[in-house]
Amino acid sequence: MESWANALISVSDYERAGENRRSLARQVQRGVLVRVRPGIYAPAREWRDLTWWDQYRLKVEAVAQGPASDRVFSRQSAASVWGIPFFGAKNHVHVQVGRSTHGRLSAGVQSHRDLELESPVKRKKLWVTTRAQTVIELALSVPFPHAVAAADHVLNADSEESLEPISKNEIMAIAERLNSKAKFDRASNVIRFADVRSDSPGESVSRANMYLEGFGQPELQYRVEDDDGSLIGISDFYWEELRLLGEYDGLTKYSRNEYLQGKLPPDVLTAEKIREDAMRMTGRGMVGGCGPPCGEPDLMRHPFFRRSFGQQGWQRISGNTSGPQDRSGARTF
């Protein structure tokens, strides 16, 4: 991604090289370049090969190359720099401004008043809100399940980003600096619900929606053992009351090299089927399926998962029936 950021083409650099800016527009028309944001372009073919979250990360880099190079990125934009999961391919780039300044949207950049919970830090040559403040800001601005995915993520060490875990107590202590009870209540709902055992953003979103829809909360990363106590497999979810296992399989598991580990997708899928069949042979039921391809992993709303629940005779059991409230009083779905 860093090399990609260096490959971004700005109009000012193009003109300094003696080129005519009108040729950039012609290259966009021919499909050679894409406009990342006003005044910043990228090679079209390489851009199309990027995932939506990598494209969004480059939009952040493009904004950073603008005249206000010291701006502080926040919310989803800070999350993209930290490697914190976020959702929605069409997000604006988010930056923070002083409390005396009104937030506004201009050329795809949304500014917000600084919550002033912690001082910004520099990460990958960009100024960003801290990981804890980023999670809190997401808790105040995005749907509850998406905020839970971010909070779950930072409770664990991130080896890919070389980052240590943050404890719930640390995040809660920073949230207590919020200047209103309503904001603190909304942030603390997310922090308390976060669970270090969650293994993926899709699992986090699914678990949060189970809570919102009034279903009993599952045990996470449940060890399924045979009669001799030998491990058969680990299930994403388990409901002891129903002896029911739940599996979330994001589509990246069958498409990205870090998950395939040199194997072909059909081989990985076959191994998963064998593992799940072995877990079913312990006398437990199982529901599961793949989440949508990008942007909004939500197992509870996936048709296959819903059908599976119906086949198991699922009934809502002890759980939340009202769900966390957003600032307007509406349930956050």
List keywords for this structure.
single chain, 333 residues, alpha+beta, six-stranded mixed sheet, four-stranded mixed sheet, 14 helices
Topology:
Blueprint: H1 2-6, E1 9-10, H2 11-16, H3 21-29, E2 33-37, E3 40-43, H4 44-49, H5 52-64, E4 72-73, H6 75-82, E5 93-97, E6 105-106, E7 109-113, E8 121-123, E9 126-128, H7 131-141, H8 144-154, H9 168-175, H10 181-193, H11 201-212, E10 219-225, E11 231-239, E12 244-249, H12 257-260, H13 265-280, E13 285-290, H14 303-311
Parallel strand pairs: 4-9, 5-7, 12-13
Antiparallel strand pairs: 1-3, 2-3, 4-5, 6-7, 8-9, 10-11, 11-12
Notes on the protein architecture:
This protein is an alpha+beta fold and 333 residues long. A six-stranded mixed sheet has the order 6-7-5-4-9-8. It has a four-stranded mixed sheet with strand order 10-11-12-13. Residues 251-260, 292-296 and 321-333 have low confidence and may be disordered. It has helices at residues 2-6, 11-16, 21-29, 44-49, 52-64, 75-82, 131-141, 144-154, 168-175, 181-193, 201-212, 257-260, 265-280, 303-311, and strands at residues 9-10, 33-37, 40-43, 72-73, 93-97, 105-106, 109-113, 121-123, 126-128, 219-225, 231-239, 244-249, 285-290. The two termini are 32 Å apart. The relative contact order is 0.09. Helix 6 (75-82) crosses helix 7, helix 8 packs across helix 11 (201-212) and helix 9 packs antiparallel against helix 10 (181-193).
